[in-house]
Design a protein that fits this description.
Blueprint lengths: L8 H11 L3 H8 L3 H8 L7 H11 L11 H12 L11 H10 L1 H22 L16 H11 L5 H14 L5 H11 L3 E5 L5 E4 L4 E5 L4 H16 L1 H11 L4 H20 L2 H10 L4 H8 L3 H8 L13 E6 L4 E6 L28 E6 L5 E8 L14 E8 L21 E2 L24 E2 L11 E2 L1
Parallel strand pairs: 1-3, 6-9
Antiparallel strand pairs: 2-3, 4-5, 4-8, 6-7, 7-8, 10-11
Amino acid sequence: MATQKLYAGAKLREIRTRLGLTQRDFAAKLGVSLPYLNQMENNNRPLSTTVVLALAQEFGFDVTELGQGDSERLVTDMAEALADPVFAEGAPPLADLRLTASNAPALARAFLALHRAYRQTHERLASLDEALGREGTQLQASPWEEVRDFFHYCDNYIDAVDRAGEHFAQLAQDEGDIRQAAIARLGKRGIAVRLSQSGPLRSYDPESQTLTLSALAPPETQTFQLLLQVALLRQNALLEATLDLARFQSDAARAIAKIGLANYFAGAAMMPYRAFLAAAQDTRHDLELLSLRFGASVEQVAHRLSTLQRPGAKGIPFFFVRVDQAGTITKRHSATRLQFARFGGACPLWNVHRAFETPGRFLRQLAETPDGVRYISIARDVSKPGGHFGAPVRRYAIALGCELRHAGALVYADGLDLGRDGAFEPIGISCRICERKGCHQRSVPPLERRLSVPEDRRGVLPYTVE
């Protein structure tokens, strides 16, 4: 089988810029000529073996990052945006999208930001949002989407915050229990922690210096909220510095991102990187065993597994998603080639939707996307009771998965027929951009295909895709 050529011009330019080197100096250190480096940076030539080795030996660069980055997800995001009816007359071919993502990623992100602004305008008009008519209103991505994209394009891994959480966990080992360590750290600042049978999940009163947690919440949730408050109070400088680098467009986005970073710190402290990675490998990624070992919920463990992307010590690249009962995606991240729809719900053929029907059980699925990539996915409901009779129950389902080549490292792959083509269910991203012709669950036709609507024949769908 022929070896796939590696074009990574944007990543090569990024490395050189980060090192503060001119093209001439960088070429000398890589052992290539200046014209050859220029051609590689512009994707006119693939990276040579000599350059890849030089990056690893001369600069200690994790060469596995060269084949990853933002290109695949940018291509997917642009393809979905271009499936919008406004582009129906002249959507560019996939090859052009790949060239844009690899050669001009900043332009691709600017296009996506522009499309988000366009969509937001139409959504506001559709809902008669009176704010649109106010003087001075500006078009921009919603703060929630902006923050979600920030974590998405960071591969859901924030190195400085992750290491700060791991450092806190190491210090907490002396006290034996991370919950007590968090209470002790807050106590040193004069903050008392108490439990209440009523009120919100977490409430901090700076005047009385009292942190109140819900006594009805599970122990792992209480611990997580304790650590989140530790991050807000003791790691504020780190969080603010990270936010400065992100350059969010609005104060609302910055505020949402700060809570997101505090959540990240809490997860990293409960499940410190190196210890958690070793345990994940030792248990073959058994979510229940990891949950018991680290005092975390199954959802917290699954989300943490999707963040193990530290350079030089990466875990399996997972995708992680949470959906509500309506199928709306409320959390999403993918370190794999599978990228979730930015708007709307997930493919109805995915097992995450069936998890609501089998509470407390893991569902396993072998799936294949239209690009021919095969995955193993596990799904489970993660309903969250209110803590007392009559309290509302929040119902969600989560899915965690990876490409099939990693199946041997997952306990959930045991006993599955990985070699049989018929064992893999065909799934997609969203109906508008899915190219499958005969899907019985298709909700809308694909925008890039012609349709035939026969009057004298009716199949599963009232049309056929040509």
